[in-house]
Write a structure and sequence with these properties.
Blueprint lengths: L5 E5 L4 H12 L3 E6 L2 H13 L4 E5 L5 H15 L4 E4 L14 H33 L8 E8 L10 H21 L4 E8 L2 E2 L1 H9 L1 H9 L7 E2 H12 L10 E4 L15
Parallel strand pairs: 1-2, 1-4, 2-3, 4-5, 5-6, 6-9, 7-8
Helix pairs in contact: 1-8, 3-4, 4-5
Length: about 270
């Protein structure tokens, strides 16, 4: 149901963004890929092209309005339409919440809120214009946007103060855009990740075995998730199968947000 549709994927060179990119390619989507890591992005693009994928890439900084406009223009010039946007690029910084600076907060809000929101607005305007030109909705609607965020938005993790707040802001942006775009049959949802194995998390575990054990102990399914599993959730929300779902935040966390770490108190 995704074959032949065009998707923009940010953060496409690593982690969940990379897993989404590969899954979309397997399902026959036309891809517009962007990442701040130009070398890794082009390496992945070469691999996917060799596998038969149809794609274009742009190395850019989406915190800049010109970059947003250039990315949308590249998608339209290359494939004429934009059907799906996946905002998968995220940045996380941990530290003492009492030492978090204004610059720390500004940096995370620029990357995790302003950039995806600005791109979502630009893509939504294009989706609306396409719908008006088309005259009748496509199966599943006139387009969909999926934001990748974190369960940190709803958990209290003091060491991730700025990151948590930025994720909460992106969740609210998801809901607000969903309502605003519903009359145009454009859906907006989010995927909130728990502990999902990426290259950065795997590297962190090398020196922090106790952290890995603790994360598993507070996850009911008893393991760390895979990036491919998160990608499947994104693909579902991007597909016509989720045509009556909008404004929702789907937790992909192995049940971690369901668990009270205190357990049953002694009586």
């Amino acid at each position: 149901m995704l074959e032949g549709r065009t998707a923009i994927v940010t953060g496409a060179a690593t982690g969940v963004g990379l897993a989404v990119t590969r899954l979309f390619a397997q399902r026959g989507m036309r891809l517009v890929l962007t990442d701040t890591d130009a070398e890794r992005l082009e390496q992945e693009a070469r691999y996917l092209r060799d596998e038969g994928a149809e794609l274009v890439t742009l190395h850019c900084d989406l915190r800049q309005r010109l970059s947003v406009n250039n990315l949308v223009a590249l998608a339209v010039d290359s494939f004429e339409t934009i059907d799906v946007l996946v905002n998968a690029s995220r940045h996380m910084v941990a530290g003492d919440p009492l030492q978090t600076t204004e610059e720390d907060v500004d940096a995370l809000f620029l990357h995790n809120v302003k950039a995806p929101l600005g791109l979502a607005q630009a893509v939504a305007r294009r989706m609306i214009a396409q719908a008006e030109a088309r005259g009748a909705p496509q199966p599943g609607g006139n387009g969909c946007i999926v934001n990748v965020t974190s369960i940190a938005a709803r958990r209290t993790l003091p060491e991730l103060l700025a990151f948590s707040v930025s994720c909460a802001a992106l969740e609210q942006a998801t809901r607000s855009l969903a309502v605003a775009l519903a009359p145009h049959a454009v859906r907006v949802n989010a995927v909130a990740l728990g502990s999902v194995m990426t290259a950065s998390l795997r590297a962190a575990f090398k020196d922090q075995e106790e952290t890995r054990r603790r994360l598993i102990s507070v996850t009911p399914l008893g393991r760390i998730g895979e990036a491919a599993e998160a990608a499947e959730a994104v693909a579902f929300l991007a597909s016509p199968q989720s045509s009556f779902i909008t404004g929702q935040v789907l937790a992909v966390d192995g049940g971690r947000t369901l668990l009270d770490p205190l357990g049953i108190p002694a009586l």
